[in-house]
C-alpha cells in the first residue's frame, strides 16, 4: 500500500491505535488470568435462587419462536422460579398462534399488543412480572440448558445489576454465517474483557439478565435509536451499575444469511452505537467512568472512522493500480509479468504491522473460542473473516455514519 | 471455559502504560525489520553496481590490451544489458519505499547514472573500433511530479527492451545533481520538456509509443533479425 505523505501518517497513527487497543485487551486478559484464583465477584450460588422472568419479545417470528420457548422451558432451573413471558408485538404472521400453543402452562404467559417496538414489549413484561431477575431472549435465539444457572449466581454480588452471556451463531450454514461465527467468537472475548474492565456498553438482546428492580428504577427500556440493549447498558453505566459477563452461559442466535440482511442489521447496530454515544457523550474522556470513558468508548468511535478511512485508502490504492495496469497494457500491448524476484517482496513497516494486527486478531478469536466453548481452535470461517470482513465492514459503517449525521433513523428489518 | 467476570469501574492506568510500551516496541521492531530488509536491498544493489563497475573496468582494460582481437568478445559481452534493467527497476522500487534512506538511495542513483554513462562511452568506443552498429536510446525523465507521461514512457521503453534484448536504453533522472550527467545533457542539448528521448543523436520530446520509436529507429528491425538468425544458426 502507498505509505508516503499525510495519508501514510494517518494510516500509521490509526494502525498504532488499533494495535494499542488489541494489546491493551490482551494485557488486561493476561492480568486477569494471573489473578484467576482470586474471587472474581461472581457469587457462589449458595444463596436462595431468585425468581426469574425470561421475556421473549417477538414480531413476526413464527418460524423460530417455538424453539426459543422450548429452550427456555428446557433450562435447568426450578420450574416454580422461572417464567417465560412471550410478548407478541403486533405480529402480522402466525407468531401469536405459535405462542398460544403454550397457553395454559403455568410457567408461560402470553401477551399480545399493538406493534410499538421491542422496548415496549419488554416494558410490558417488566410491568407484569414480580420476578427478581428479568431477562430478554430474542425470538431468533435459543439458550443452552445450563445458561441460567451460570448467570444467576453472579447476582450474589450485590453490585452486579446485569449479566451478559456468551453469544454464538446458531447452526452456521452459509459462508457469511461461518464468517459471522468467527466474528462472534471475537465478540465473546471482547464482551468478556469489557466486563472485566467494568466497561460493558451493550447488554445484548439474546439472554442478558437484569435485576428487575434496577431496570424499574432506571425507568425501563427505551427506544435507544433501535438499539435498546446498548442504551440500557449505557444508562446502567451512567448510573454506576456493574455489568458482568458469564461467557459459559451459551446462547445461540440466528444470524443474517445474506449480505443485504447483514448490511441492514449492522447499519442498525452502528447507527444505534453512534447515536447513543452522542446521547451519552458526557462519558467520553470522563475519568469518572473509568476505562469506559477513557478508553473503550473513545476507541470504539475511532474504530468506526478508522474502518472507513482504511477502506477508502485501500480502495483508492487498488483503483489507481487498476488504472495503471490498464494504461500499461494499452501502452505495451501485453499483460505485465509478475516478478518472482524476492527483492520485490513488500517488507515495509506498514505490512509488518498489518500482519501483527491480523495475528493479534487471530489470537483474540482463539481466546474468545476458548473462553466461550473451551475449544482452542478458531472457527472455520476465521480465514474468510480476516481476509474479507474488513472490506465489508466499512460499507455499513459509512452508511450508518451518514444516517447518524442526518438522523434518518433505521429500520429493524 | 472462563468463570463469570465483572470488574469495578476504574481506570487501569498501569495497563494503559504497559500497552503503550508494548505497542511502541512492536512499532519499533516493525520499523527496524523494514529498515533491515531495505538495507539488505541497498547492499544488494551496491554489490551489483560494484560488479558492473568491475566489468566495465575489465572490458576497458581488455579492450586496451587486445584492441581488435577483443572485438568479438566485447560485442558479445554486453555488460549492462543483462543487469541494467533489473537494476533500474529495483532503484525505482526503492524510491516508493518510505523507510529507505533517501541520501543512500540518491547516492546509488548517481552511481548508477555514472555507470550508464561509462558504459555508453565504452560502447561508442567499441562500436567505432569494431565497426559495430549498436542501437542506443537515451531516456531523460523526472520523478518530481512534473512529468505526467514519464511513467508511461517508462512502460513503453521497458516493453521495447523486452522485445529487443540487444537494444541499449540508458535512463537518466534529469534532476540528478551530477556533473557528468549535466555535461551529457548539455552535449545532447536536452531541454526540460520531459519525457525526452535521444535516438540516433536526435532529441524527441513528449511521450512516444513503441510504434513511434520503431519508426524512428529502423535499426531495431536489424537487431530483431540478428537475434532470429542467431537462433537459427544455433540449431
Automatic annotation (TrEMBL), chain A:
Entry keyword Glycosyltransferase: yes
InterPro entries noted in UniProt: Nucleotide-diphossugar_trans (IPR029044)
Keywords: Glycosyltransferase, Membrane, Transferase, Transmembrane, Transmembrane helix
Transmembrane segments: 12-30, 292-319, 349-372, 384-406
Xref: Pfam families: Glyco_tranf_2_3 (PF13641)
Molecular function GO terms recorded: glycosyltransferase activity
PANTHER family: POLY-BETA-1,6-N-ACETYL-D-GLUCOSAMINE SYNTHASE
Family: Belongs to the glycosyltransferase 2 family.
Record's protein name: Glycosyltransferase 2-like domain-containing protein
Organism: Candidatus Kaiserbacteria bacterium RIFCSPHIGHO2_12_FULL_53_13
Automatic annotation (TrEMBL), chain B:
Alphabetical keyword list: Membrane, Transmembrane, Transmembrane helix
Transmembrane segments: 16-37
Stated name of the protein: Thioredoxin domain-containing protein
Annotated organism of origin: Candidatus Kaiserbacteria bacterium RIFCSPHIGHO2_12_FULL_53_13
Amino acid at each position: 500500500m502507498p505509505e508516503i505523505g499525510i495519508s501514510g501518517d494517518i494510516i500509521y497513527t490509526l494502525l498504532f491505535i488499533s494495535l494499542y487497543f488489541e494489546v491493551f485487551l490482551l494485557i488486561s486478559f493476561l492480568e486477569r488470568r494471573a489473578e484467576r484464583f482470586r474471587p472474581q465477584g461472581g457469587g457462589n450460588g449458595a444463596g436462595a435462587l431468585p425468581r426469574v422472568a425470561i421475556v421473549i419479545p417477538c414480531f413476526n417470528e413464527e418460524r423460530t419462536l417455538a424453539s426459543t420457548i422450548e429452550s427456555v422451558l428446557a433450562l435447568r432451573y426450578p420450574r416454580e422460579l422461572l417464567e417465560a413471558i412471550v410478548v407478541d408485538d403486533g405480529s402480522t404472521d402466525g407468531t401469536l398462534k405459535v405462542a398460544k400453543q403454550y397457553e395454559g402452562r403455568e410457567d408461560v404467559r402470553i401477551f399480545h399488543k399493538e406493534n410499538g417496538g421491542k422496548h415496549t414489549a419488554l416494558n410490558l413484561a417488566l410491568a407484569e412480572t414480580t420476578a427478581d431477575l428479568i431477562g430478554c431472549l430474542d425470538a431468533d435465539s435459543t439458550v443452552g440448558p445450563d445458561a441460567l444457572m451460570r448467570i444467576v449466581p453472579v447476582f450474589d454480588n450485590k453490585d452486579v445489576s446485569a449479566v451478559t452471556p456468551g453469544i454464538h451463531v446458531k447452526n452456521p450454514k452459509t459462508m457469511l454465517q461461518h464468517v459471522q461465527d468467527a466474528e462472534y467468537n471475537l465478540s465473546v472475548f471482547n464482551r468478556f474483557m469489557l466486563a472485566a474492565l467494568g466497561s460493558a456498553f451493550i447488554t445484548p438482546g439474546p439472554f442478558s439478565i437484569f435485576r428487575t428492580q434496577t431496570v424499574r428504577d432506571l425507568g425501563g427500556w427505551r427506544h435507544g435509536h433501535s438499539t435498546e440493549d446498548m442504551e440500557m447498558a449505557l444508562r446502567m453505566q451512567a448510573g454506576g451499575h456493574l455489568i458482568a459477563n458469564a461467557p459459559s452461559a451459551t446462547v445461540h442466535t440466528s444470524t443474517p444469511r445474506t449480505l443485504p440482511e447483514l448490511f441492514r442489521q449492522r447499519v442498525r447496530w452502528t447507527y444505534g452505537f453512534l447515536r447513543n454515544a452522542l446521547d451519552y457523550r458526557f462519558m467520553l474522556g470522563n475519568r469518572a467512568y473509568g476505562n469506559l470513558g477513557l478508553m473503550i468508548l473513545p476507541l470504539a468511535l475511532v474504530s468506526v472512522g478508522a474502518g472507513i478511512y482504511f477502506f477508502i485508502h485501500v480502495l483508492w490504492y487498488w483503483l489507481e493500480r487498476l488504472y495503471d495496469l490498464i494504461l500499461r497494457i494499452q501502452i505495451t500491448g501485453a499483460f505485465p509479468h509478475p516478478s518472482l524476484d524476492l527483492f520485490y517482496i513488500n517488507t515495509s513497516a506498514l505490512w509488518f504491522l498489518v500482519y501483527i494486527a491480523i495475528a493479534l486478531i487471530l489470537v483474540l478469536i482463539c481466546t474468545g473460542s476458548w473462553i466461550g466453548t473451551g475449544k482452542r481452535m478458531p472457527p472455520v470461517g476465521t480465514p474468510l473473516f480476516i481476509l474479507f470482513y474488513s472490506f465489508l465492514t466499512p460499507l455499513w459503517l459509512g452508511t450508518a455514519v451518514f444516517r447518524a449525521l442526518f438522523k434518518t433513523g433505521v429500520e429493524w428489518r | 471455559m472462563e468463570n463469570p467476570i465483572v470488574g469495578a469501574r476504574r481506570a487501569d492506568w498501569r495497563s494503559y502504560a504497559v500497552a503503550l510500551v508494548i505497542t511502541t516496541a512492536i512499532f519499533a521492531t516493525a520499523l527496524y525489520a523494514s529498515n533491515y530488509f531495505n538495507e539488505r536491498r541497498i547492499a544488494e544493489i551496491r554489490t551489483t553496481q560494484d560488479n558492473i563497475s568491475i566489468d566495465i573496468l575489465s572490458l576497458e582494460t581488455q579492450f586496451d590490451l587486445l584492441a581488435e582481437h577483443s572485438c568479438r568478445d566485447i560485442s558479445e559481452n554486453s555488460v549492462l544489458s543483462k543487469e541494467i534493467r533489473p537494476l533500474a527497476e529495483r532503484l525505482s522500487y526503492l524510491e516508493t519505499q518510505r523507510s529507505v534512506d533517501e541520501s543512500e538511495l540518491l547516492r546509488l542513483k548517481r552511481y548508477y547514472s555514472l555507470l550508464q554513462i561509462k558504459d555508453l562511452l565504452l560502447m561508442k568506443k567499441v562500436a567505432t573500433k569494431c565497426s559495430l552498429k549498436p542501437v542506443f536510446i537515451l531516456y531523460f525523465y523526472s520523478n518530481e511530479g512534473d512529468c505526467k507521461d514519464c511513467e508511461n514512457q517508462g512502460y513503453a521503453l521497458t516493453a521495447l527492451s523486452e522485445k529487443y534484448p540487444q537494444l541499449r536504453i540508458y535512463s537518466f533522472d534529469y534532476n540528478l545533481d551530477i556533473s557528468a550527467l549535466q555535461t551529457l545533457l548539455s552535449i545532447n542539448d536536452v531541454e526540460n520538456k520531459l519525457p525526452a528521448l535521444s535516438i540516433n543523436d536526435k532529441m524527441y520530446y513528449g511521450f512516444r509509443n513503441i510504434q513511434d520509436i520503431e519508426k524512428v529507429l529502423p535499426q531495431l528491425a536489424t537487431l530483431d533479425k540478428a537475434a532470429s538468425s542467431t537462433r537459427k544458426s544455433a540449431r
